[in-house]
Amino acid sequence: MLNSLLSFFLGVKKRLKQGRVLMIVVFFLLFFNSALLGRSPAAIRFLPQWTHQAQFAGFYMALDKGFYAEEGLSVTILDGGPQNPVGEAIQSDKAEIVSSFFSSALAMKNQGLPIVNICQYSKRSALMVASKKSRLSEDIASLNGVRIGLWHKDFREIPLYFFHSQGLSPDIIPIKSGIQLFLNDGVEALVVMWYNELHRILSAGYAEADLNMFHFFDYGINMPEDGLFCREDYYDENRRYADAFVRASLRGWQYAFTHKDEALEAVLWRQKATGIPANLAHEGYMLDCMQSLLEADADDASVSGYMSKKAYLEAIEIALKAGIIENVPPYQAFVRTWKKLE
User: Fold this and answer.
1) Comparing C-alpha atoms, which of 109, 311, 286, 309 is closest to residue 223?
2) So what's the pLDDT on residue 12?
């Protein structure tokens, strides 16, 4: 290319005065240098599936420490939560990449949303049932026929399948959120997230020794949870940007786990800036839980975004039995993390 340019300017020199040739050359080189070296970074809007909390600390670190910028990305982390559903954001082009529970993304895929999984960073389910030892025994059969609080809208299918798989027929009491009904003995047990509601129960004065805790993964119901997703056409057209986002995000998670005080500061100021009640102890507990969930299948305390075909098929089996999906998307049509190992 440079040889062609040289020939061009030599030809021009024969027809124009030397000063004018120099002016043209300088203008061209400035333009050429600007186009290559001053290229704008790729803009990515990232939407977490919930409001700011330590569940997303790795992304905050990737942004604040400049990991995204080092990959040539200009990332904006949007405010997530029930007012900004990730499925609608992807569908209406309000975000390029979102986080979501794997089961929720499977359901969206079955409903026709053309999304793909580009990183499955959470390897283990955080769902569990908690009961008070003062009211029920530690035998899982004690949950049969009793009142159990369960969210009235989202994330119901897997808990209901868990009860069915264990031969239990509890009296399901729909709740919107919170733990008050459990604390006041309005229900005998409560479906909780390990990193969220369980710690709120502990913070209310209970010790782990006071509780029966039935982790779903201990009973073979281990649906992977948090992953990264984008539209299939976006990934096909912008794979290098999507992969760069994944690399920087995983680096952010590694940094968050080795610099927890700094990561928690990043969580708390975002909560305060958006009017979310901030609690350092709760967010610290959540960050510790996230580390266990993300490093669940690692021998070297590393965070991987890879999802094997075996893990995918196990998740599909749970999704089918729980009634989350009816059609099974082929592994390589939905999971793009496999490409990173090619």
Assistant:
1) 311
2) 39
